User: Fold ABC transporter ATP-binding protein from Ginsengibacter hankyongi.
Amino acid sequence: MNTVIDAHNISKVYNPETIPVYAVNNVHLHLERGEFTALVGPSGSGKTTLLNMIGGLDKPDGGNIFINGNDITKLSANELIDFRLKNIGFVFQSFNLIPVLTAKENVEFIMQLQKIKQSERDERIKQLFQQIGLEDKLNERPSKLSGGQQQRVAVARALASKPQFVLADEPTANLDTKSASNLLDIMAKLNKEENITFLFSTHDQRVIDRARRVITLVDGRIVKDTAVVSTEHKEAATIR
Assistant:
């Protein structure tokens, strides 16, 4: 296994001049390629803030974040945009699809930014929509898709750039049980067959039950890091 994410002493502080509030407080986090990890904790525990800093959407006030050996905290704004485009896939709770574009166009947009030629884009889109089971929805706009279908398109978009890993912030929060299960099946299959690393921020027990590692945050600190020994029997052992 290879290290994908290596975060050292990262912190995010609000109101530092008056009454400091630590959204993330001196966190160390190490993820290897191919992990399927859930980041859990109560509301306000710092899950989304930590995810956003790892994804380069927010900058830590302290510490360093290495992605494949690259310290993203040292990158300029333009360098960070380029790095995210080439290395990180994002799946959001609210889908974040562009409403005026079709499902195909939403996914293709990322590859256009990467300047991938048309023939390669067409082949990749065909493969992705087969993987998410929406080959017949290529030309539908988001408003014509169910919530579960929109989230599957969002996963395809996240994978379009062939990222090193995918960050998913509450990806099942707006889905019914069947849609959530289908989405998790797709992501688990991609994780197993393509060795894509997934890091979820979630309250959803359905996601937690499928994870092979569960990291618990409380008040901006990691208080528990648990590796699942048997996904079949849901046995777990605390590793630190």
Summary: Residues 85 and 113 are 8 Å apart (CA to CA). Residues 230-240 have pLDDT under 50 and may be disordered.
